[in-house]
Amino acid sequence: MNCRITHRLLLAVVAMTVMTLYVQACPYHDRLRELARQQRERMAELRRRQSLHDARQSAIHQVRQNLGGSRSSHSHNHASHGHRPAPRPAPVAGGTRHITQVRRPVSSSRTHRYYPQSQVNGHTDQIVNSYYVQPEQHVPCPGSNIYYCPIGTYCKHQRGSSTPYRCMYQRTVYSCNPGFKQVSLSSTQFMCQDINECENATLNTCEQECINTRGSYRCLCEPGFEAGLTGSCEDVDECSSNICDYQCENSIGNYTCSCPTGYKKSGDRCFDIDECAGENNCLETERCLNMFGGFECQVSEECEEGYHRTSGDAFGPCVIINYDRYNYTVPVSIAKNRYGLRSTYPAGSTVGRMNFGVRIHTFEIIEGNEFFRVYTNPRRYVLHIKTKVPLEGAGNEYVLRLDVVHYSSGIPMKSRVQFEFVLSEYNF
């Protein structure tokens, strides 16, 4: 029976030893024990300094009493000689003299010293007594300049205890914001680390591309798609924004532009093909005239009666034959020019310029004044043609005919010029 009891006691001692070792190995309890040890050392130092302070005060009091006795006898001597004794300060309650303590900080911002002062017969004797130094790692307990607790703890008042305050850790539970996770640094400390939601498909709702940000993530889509509110990628209908010149065909994530006959595609735009620059179907006696989206084969026209072509060009101007019969009322030359335009020209658009090579004296619009406005440049060598009204309608032709007068050797010369403008089917 005694063996069993002894064996059980041995097991209990071993268990308590293991528990004690476990508790002692805990960093939290190690910190508490360290704080308690520092508090005990601080209290012992304070008690030592307080005892020294009391001893000094007792010595000062004894010196004051001795000085008071000598001054009293000296006053009686003065009275015997007819001198009036000097007034003495009024005593305070209890028969002790008035002592004032003045708090003065020293040069360091982390330490405060206290300098008590004593007054005897109007004289001030300063006695330096540095009885406490406050480190910046501690804060005083409320209403006390003796008890301090380390920063990060708080003072808890204990009733009926020899130590009125106890340093306690805050019991606030800290957590990380959404999008962060706790990473332990020790048994009592942790840091918040960003979570990369893009590495885990269950943490993001992106359909195509995921970009991690601090505390969150952002969804991106490939060209031709736009991101929805939930991270989905929806097809963009590029054709709804008139991105193509002619026809647009939308597809998933893309689109295709096409051009009509007579145009070539470059990117999203359509550009006219100059059929006259290469092979065409015009005859050798015809002239190829490039138009927007096509071309024309022009046939040479006969000159009016009394005019002929002298340059050998079948499409050149017709010049008057008999200069002797020229009476300055009929044109010296007649020229016709044909141009292709786009389907729409707003009012005020420049549709043509013509360089005569000689200074223009005057000009007169014979036909087309309701559609065109004509003016010359300051040097009067170039004729500018602008629209008065919008030119519209595929295939429509607008004619401008005018007489231009210039001087040659002091003789006025009149030339008749005719412009024919043909509108295309397309506005590009």
Description:
- This protein is of the alpha+beta class.
- The chain has four domains: 32-51 and 100-172, no CATH class; 176-236, Ribbon (Laminin), CATH 2.10.25.10; 237-273, Laminin (Ribbon), CATH 2.10.25; 275-423, no CATH class.
- It has helices at residues 2-24, 27-80, and strands at residues 99-105, 112-120, 123-126, 138-140, 148-150, 153-157, 165-169, 180-184, 190-194, 209-213, 216-220, 225-227, 233-235, 247-251, 254-258, 263-266, 269-272, 286-291, 294-299, 307-308, 318-320, 333-341, 350-355, 360-367, 372-376, 382-387, 397-408, 411-423.
- Strands 20-21-22-28-27-24 form a six-stranded mixed β-sheet, with no helix packed on it. The chain has a three-stranded antiparallel β-sheet with strand order 1-2-3, with no helix packed on it.
- β16 (263-266) and β17 form a beta hairpin.
- Residues 18-24 and 70-135 have low confidence and may be disordered.
